[in-house]
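Handoff note, outgoing to incoming analyst
You'll be picking up this chain. Sequence as last confirmed:
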Amino acid sequence: MRSETDVNRPGPRHGWLRRLALPGWVTLLAFPLIAGGCVAAQPADRAGDRGNTAAMRRIRVLIAEADTASLAVQGPSRVVDPAGNSLFSDTAPISIQVRADSQQPAAVELNGRAVPSGCRVIPAAAGTIRVDGRLYGGTLTILNRSGRVLLVNNLDIEDYLPGVLTGEMFPTFHIEAFKAQAVAARTYALYQKFVNPRPDFDVTATTASQVYVGTGSEKAVEAVRATRGRVLTWSSPAGEKMFCTYYSSTCGGETSSVSYLLPVESIPPLAGGVRCTTCTHAKYYTWPPARISRAELTAKLRARYPLFGSLGPIERIEPIKTSPAGRTTWLQLLDASGKCVRMRAAQFRLTVGPGLMRSTWCRIQPDGDGFVFTAGRGFGHGVGMCQFGADGMARTGADYRSILTHYYPTSHITKAY
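Most recent structure output, in case you need it:
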């Protein structure tokens, strides 16, 4: 989870919205993605994982979801059904076209042959599964979900993490920043697996969780090996617990509280207010003005939140809450009649597009038939570790332990296995 997911968007995996209509305006209330937020939930053994370290470390990553999919194995492989019974095998490289039929929810077609949904592709050699030009370790589960193909990569978390570090970090970043990222990414993935369980996968391969690009670089592998099994914990009133280790690209000079991102009570490691003087070399430490038209903004809001269909075109945007550092945390959007919707600035930013409104640390001003974002600072939500700041700290001599305890105050680095 890293930085760019709409944590409050309604849907089967993204929580829900509660809407409260009041005279003349509407309040949009959102609830967290994770039950109990990031504060008190204790990781619990999943069924079948109790006392089994290998099972505990196993992670399921959704790497593709589409009407049809293509994959290949660059060497010998076999395909088994959900019970592990062999369906067929090949001693040579193979290409597979996958289709899911909504009329047959318990089956998928592999090169035109019907096989049970949940079948697995098991290569003879690691790192030989290819999907969309990327190589993956472990095995691949193929699912039919309402006529959609889901490809889920199953592998040890220590083999998964190099692909996250390669996707999340610039190759020029210092090795100690890579190590800090390894601990944060490991903690995040385990937290999601045990605290927010889902039937088909634990995390996605996108910024909805953490960017995962398959096999990783040598530097990423080195960082993962150097921090093997280490996670972040905090001393909660109920004992030592893992927490959801948010991180973002560039904080802009000060980190933000998780309570500005989600409607949860913050805990000391995620309370924000951490001064960061080492991310000034980031491309988006400050960013130039960006503009969106009223028509485009209104269309995006209505597409994501049908509630906006009851409003006319957005005429005004007004901040109603800001953080001590100056980040907008809540704002209201009004049409010409004065009817309005109040929403978290983080929700608004993701609706606009994080590539346009790079953070909520900016001013929003009317500009002709649109709005312009000015005085922008930082890239991402700013909660937890600042990746560019971590690189900057490492270049001043800080090791990964110092980096992590700086950005997650009062946290501890704990050996999980």
